[in-house]
Amino acid sequence: MKLLISSAIIVLVTAVSVQAQDFDRYFYLSWMGSKPLSNTSWNDESTGKGVRFGYRKIINEKFAAGFDYTWATYDKYFPTATFEEGTRAITTDYFNYVYSYGLTLSGQYFLPFATERVMPFVGIGAGVALNRYVQYYNIYTEEDQTWGFLGRPEVGVLFPFGGKWGATISGQYNFSTAKSDYFGYDGFNSLSVNVGVVLMSY
Amino acid sequence: MKRIKAIWTSILIIAVGAGCEPQPDDIKLLDEFVVSTNFDPDADFNSYQTYYIPQDTIGLVSNLASDDTIIVGNNYARPVVNQVQSNMSARGYQSVDLTDDPDLAINAYVLKNLNIFQDVNYYPGAYGYPGYYYPGYYGYYGYNYYPYVTTYAYNTGVLVIEIVDLKNVTPQNEVTVIWDAYLGDVFSSVDLSQQTLDGIDQAFFQSTYLTKQ
Predict the structure, then answer these.
(1) Percent residues over pLDDT 90 in chain B
(2) Residue B18 — pLDDT band, cuts 50, 70, 90?
(3) Please, how many CA atoms are within 13 Å of residue A128, restricted to the half-sphere of its CB?
(4) Are B18 and B167 in contact (CB under 8 A)?
(5) Could you tell me the residue range of the domain that residue B97 belongs to?
(6) What does the pLDDT look like over B49-67, one tens digit per residue?
(7) A139 and B36 in contact by Cβ < 8 A?
(8) What residue ranges do the domains of chain A occupy?
(9) Distance between CA A76 and CA A134 in Å, rounded?
(10) For residue B2, is it within any domain?
(11) Is A69 in Cβ contact with B17 (below 8 Å)?
């Protein structure tokens, strides 16, 4: 019986592997968790409210290229405090939010020890970042929206399951020049982790 | 065909993502008033002894029809007046009748449908700052409210408390608002009464200079 099961698994894996190495492009959709690394006095809270979506075209067995689109919401609550400026004082609690969007052209290099089922890679992306910095207090809001350059080195692993589906896990460092003079933000850098599903195309 | 489908799918996902912006919890946002105070740096708060505040009523300034339900009856106005009096008493000022020639007058009113705090933030000097105006509500001349700067279509409102210097009337027969407090938003609160009382206390708490030593 054990021999039968083992044989079945070997046959299945072989069949899947043969299919897996044939895909020539893929889409992925992943959950993205992020942590701000800059201007942390304004917001230093990690967030799980993020998504990453992307496309890759397999150029050859070593390289793939495509695009990535990300969005994430960072939020932090600040308890009631009094702010004084000249003769004026304002007391309130408030929320600082950063709505962060990124669109990059990306390339990735599959490391030499990649296999058909486990494909580690390093990558780099460059594009634009759109950040909306919003401060909410009571019914009032103050907002600043900025654009900037976005650079994104990353490492990750692609797991083709065979057939159309796969999985991916990766980590990125996001460097953005989307600064906000209004809120004293001189750029927005963060660290992200992604776990998602992959849809292969043949 | 396959490629076009993929492109449209990508655009759809991007569009959905762009429209997905979580907001703060409403209850958490609205369970405390924003309390803003300001004062005239030339005022000597130690030089005043008495004040007058109208009993059982507060005013309403609105650019809408007078359909307000907040200030009608004793459920709101009376506690507001009491809380102001309590704080003024704790600071050493004595409440007197208008006929007793008070040093100060206190005016409390609700400003409705006016975006006060943005004006405070972006247009210093235009709104919410103490300054001269012609006295009217204590029997001198027609009352001139502050000039309206910006109005909005949605309901917002703040409770305004002003302290007017009746002791130092200018030769032009002008008086000065030497302290004001803006509490809001009174139309979007979780517990209007309690938040108002807490807000009044906070306004005095953050105005340590407002005392008769």
Answers:
(1) 38
(2) low
(3) 3
(4) no
(5) 24-205
(6) 999 998 867 776 665 555 5
(7) no
(8) 2-201
(9) 11
(10) no
(11) yes
